Amino acid sequence: MPISSEHVGRRYPTTQPYRVSAAKIEEFATALHDEAPAYHGDDAVAPPTFAMVIAARAWQHLFDDPELDLRLDHTIHADQSFQWARPLHVDDEVTATLTIASVRTRGATDMVGLDVSLDTPSGEHLATAHSTLWHTHTTSDHAPGEDS
Predict the structure, then answer these.
(1) Are 21 and 3 in contact (CB under 8 A)?
(2) C-alpha distances out from residue 60 to 39, 56, 72, 100, Å
(3) What are the φ and ψ backbone dihedral angles of 34, each rounded to 5 degrees?
(4) How confident is the model at residue 139 (pLDDT cuts 50, 70, 90)?
(5) Rounded to two decimals, what is the model's pTM?
(6) Which of 41, 75, 96, 126 has the largest count of CB atoms under 10 Å?
(7) Has residue 145 got a pLDDT over 60?
(8) Which pLDDT tens digit goes with each residue over 74-103?
(9) Cα–Cα distance measured from residue 13 to residue 65, given in angstroms and rounded to the nearest whole number
(10) 139: phi then psi, degrees, rounded to nearest 5
(11) Do 28 and 47 contact (CB within 8 A), yes or no?
């Protein structure tokens, strides 16, 4: 059965911890052409969108779940927002836990809302990344009238 509203609330296993490093923060800031001093040096903080480096690791669970029938090459990352408890710092270890927050199907498009909780292994909540993915499929992939 392809992804449907029945999958809302499905939570996937937490990823292995990702250690935030000064080098990775600087690479990310440089790619953004952001020279803000806060993003450079041994005690750097990460730009807010750096969190997607970690959150996207949790997305793999969606594409590995055979029940959902999602294909990365049919997916567009349509929307992104964050709710922050605190910024990410050098040497933070961060895990990501993905939950399917919403699913709407309209014709050949699935609109999938995701919440990824970013936390330390000890349980400190750092942020939640909210994303919307648009996934296209052939109309024969879904039963007529399903979720429409």
Answers:
(1) no
(2) 28, 7, 9, 13
(3) -110, 110
(4) low
(5) 0.89
(6) 96
(7) no
(8) 999 999 999 999 999 999 999 999 999 999
(9) 12
(10) -60, -20
(11) yes
Average of per-residue pLDDT across 107-130: 97
Cα separation, 100 vs 67, in Å, equals: 13
Residues in the chain: 148
DSSP string, the chain: ----GGGTT-BPPPPPPEE--HHHHHHHHHHTT---GGGSSTT-B--GGGHHHHHHHHHHHHHH-TTT---GGGEEEEEEEEEESS--BTT-EEEEEEEEEEEEEETTEEEEEEEEEEE-TT--EEEEEEEEEEEE--GGGS-TTTT-
Which tokens in the block code for residue 63? 């594409």
Residue 26: what residue type? E
Q: What is the pLDDT of residues 28-70, one digit of tens each?
A: 999 999 999 999 999 999 999 999 999 999 999 999 999 999 9
Rg (CA), the chain: 17
Residues 17/94, Cβ–Cβ less than 8 Å: yes
How far is the first Cα of the chain from the last one, in angstroms, to the nearest whole number? 15
65, 98 in Cβ contact below 8 A?
A: no
